[in-house]
Structure formats: C-alpha cells, structure tokens
Amino acid sequence: MPADEVPPPAVAAIDPRLLVREEGFKGYITEFKRKLKGGELGSLPVVVALIIIWTIFQVKDSLFLSSANMVNISYFLAGTGMLAIGLVFVLLLGEIDLSVASVSGLASALFAIFATTHNINPWLAALLTILIGVGIGLVHGFFFAKIGVPAFVVTLAGFLGWNGLMLWVLGDTGSLSLADKGPMHILGQRSFFLNQDIAGAYILATVGVAALLLGSLVEQARRRKAGVPYRPTSEILARVVALAIVAYVAAYVLNKTAGVPSALVIFLVALIVCDFVLRRTTFGRKVFAVGGSIEAARRAGINVASVRMSVFAISGGFAAIGGLFLAAQTYTATLQAGQGNLLMLAIAAAVIGGTSLFGGRGNVWSALLGMLVIQSIQTGLDLLNMNQSIQYMITGAVLLAAVVIDSVSRRTQKTSGRA
Question: Where is coiled-coil annotated (predicted)?
Fold first, then answer.
C-alpha cells in the first residue's frame, strides 16, 4: 500500500436496539413486528388467552370478575403455583420432574406428624419438611446427573415411591387435622395481608411499583456506565405506569372483599426472589446455559452435574412448600394429598405460562400466568355449574395450544436465524 494512502477509519458497529429506541414510538412498533416475525412471542399468547377467558366467563356470569371471586382465584392459585415454580427450573434444562405432586403430599403428611403427633413447633416442623423436600430433590438429581438415569424414569419412580411413603406415614388414620396456627394460619384462607386492613393491598402495590422504578433506574445507570444499550427513561416510566395501573386496580378489586390473601403475598415474594436468581446471578446464567446446550456449557467450564442436582433440589423444595400451601387450604393432611390432576396442572401452568418444554427459554413468572389461566378456567366453570370433565378438556386444549405455539415459535426462530 502506498504511504500516502491511509485506510479509512473502522466504523464502530451500532447495536440495532439503540437505533430502534432513537426512532421513538415508531421504533418500538417496528421492533415488536420484528419479534413477532422472528417467533419471539414472549408472554403475549398467554396474556391474550387470559383476556379472552375472563371476557367469556364475565359475559356468561357477571360474578366472575367480582371482588369475592378474584380473591378466591388469587388464593387458590398459590399452592399449585409453588409446584410450578420448581418445575420451571427443571423445564429450563429441558427435563421433567414427575414427582412433585407426590412430594407435596408427603410434605403435608410429614408436617402433620411433626406438628401434631410429636408436638414439634409448627415453624420448625415446616422448616424440617422443606429441607426433606430439598433432600428428596437431591436424590433425584443424583441419580439423574451422576448415575445417568433419565429424569423421566427417576422422577416417575419418585412419584410412586413417595406416594407410597405418604400412605405409610399416615397409616390407618387416613388423615390428620392441622391447627390453625403458625404457618397453617399464615397460609390459610382466613389470613390476609395486614389483617384485612384496606391499606395492605395499596402498600403492596406501592412497594411493587417503587421497586420496579428503582431497579430499572439502577440498571439503566449501570448499563450506561458500562457503555452498553440501556432502556431510555421514557420506556422505564411507561413500564412503571403500566404496572401501577394493574397493581392499583387489583388492589381496589381485592379490597372490596377482604384484601390480599397472605398466601398470594408469599407466592409473589417467591416469584420475585426466583426471578432475581435466574436473571441476575451466576447460577441462573448456568441454568440457561445448560438448558440451551449441555456440550457448550461443559466446554465453558460449567459443572453440569452440579447444576442439574441443584435444580432438582429446588424443585423438591418448592414441591414441599406447595404441599404446605395445599394442606392449609383444608387444615388437614389426607391420603388424597398430591393425587388427582395436581401434577398435570402444575406442569401445565409452567408450560401455558410460556416456559419451553425444550429447555433454555422461560421464566418463573410463567407459573403465575399459567396458574391464572388454569384457576380462572376452574373457577369460571364452577360458577357455571359445569361438569369437571369439561374443565379437564378445556385445560388440556389450552396446554396443547401452548406447546404448539412454543414449537412453532422455535421453528420460526430457527428459520429466521435467531434460535
């Protein structure tokens, strides 16, 4: 190259997200269309489905969106929702845990034995029960991650074995009554945040909105300092306003009856903590990495076996917590605990909410969205005095639709080169 010819300076690549945001509202519409064409649907399908379900049931029965019915929905979704949170972690690996329903039933029986038969402090009994659930999950994870037994087989064996242990623990009594105190009182139907104080729901709404605003501003400052794309203040304010509308409307509706059930508050706290773990910690990134590609994760130096075992331990722990929630609904531990369609509903909630069965994609908020859909269907059909068989068929159809959407979405992403 001649000395007088100077090569042109390299042009720095510009992140397309910055260009989109510079276009303002039009840019977001363009980005939204691009995501739809690329198969990145996110939570859109389940939100649309929820709006349709609520509209249909409200037209059929004006009591559906009443305060009392919304309180029922918000309370009864929490127990199965806890099982669904644990399943989300497992599904992110592309695996399945078929034992969660049996573990939840065993947990309720063990808690009853600890607290009632042996007179152990209820809070200590609850802690022991949850630790046993974590230990059961570790056993499943060990056989899966270390021995190489497929997760389906390991957890299917757990489904049968832990159910048998529950029957043996309860013995001839068949059921044990639980006192309305300690954790059972907090999780029971008669417990509301701040003792039915009308301020309770609005305090929760305010805390949620403030947390989103503060967290978004801190994240914006952090990313701006690092020189990477960040959300503009206008977008942050739009998100905060949207959450505020939803939160305060929900608070107003729930306050017209009794307020926010304590079980729902604990469920939401669990969602927030788990969402932070998955999105903001090294462990969460490892879970997504293993779910996306085991070989790539192994080459990156991730201890795949450790991640697998810990995920099943989390699933077992949340199954035990869910068992306590479900026991508190009737204040009894019975032989029917963990039976019926509980397992299928927990799996359906995670999948309907948007967590992929193929691994590597989803979030814990899927448990909330999925349970809102399922519990809304159950409650709506109960109001219409329709047979339970109809409920099963509709829930099954919604689950199939969710899996079909997930499959088509993944195929579309591969076609567009974004998978």
Answer: none
C-alpha to C-alpha distance for 155 and 99, rounded to whole angstroms: 5
Same domain? For 166 and 213 the reply is no
Tens-place pLDDT, residues 160-178: 999 999 989 888 777 888 8
pLDDT at 11: 44
d(CA 290, CA 93): 6
User: Which CATH number covers residue 153?
Assistant: 1.10.3470
Asked whether the CA dihedral 407, 410, 415, 416 is positive or negative, the reply is positive
Looking at the structure, tell me whether residues 91 and 129 fall in a common domain.
yes
Residue 419 scores a pLDDT above 60: no
Q: What is the pLDDT of residues 179-225, one digit of tens each?
A: 888 889 899 887 888 765 677 888 889 998 999 899 888 888 888 88
Same domain assignment for residues 354 and 378? yes
Of 242, 260, 278, the last residue of a domain is 260
**Residue reference for tokens 């020189």:** 227
Task: Note whether 142 and 309 are within 8 A (CB).
Answer: yes
- Examine residue 23 and state whether it is found in any structural domain, yes or no: no
Q: Residue 56: which residues within 8 A CB-CB, separation 6 or more?
A: 380
Structural domain for 249, as ranges: 195-260
Q: Based on the domain organization, do 95 and 209 belong to the same domain?
A: no
What is the pLDDT at residue 162? 93
Same domain, 102 and 202: no
User: What is the pLDDT confidence band of residue 38, given thresholds at 50, 70 and 90?
Assistant: low
User: 331 — alpha (psi -120 to 50), left (phi > 0) or beta?
Assistant: left
How many angstroms separate the CA atoms of 138 and 155, rounded?
11
* Domain match, 137 and 162 both: yes
Work out the angle at residue 56's Cα, subtended by the Cα atoms of residues 52 and 58, and round it to the nearest 5 degrees: 115
Distance from C-alpha of 233 to C-alpha of 240, rounded to nearest angstrom: 10
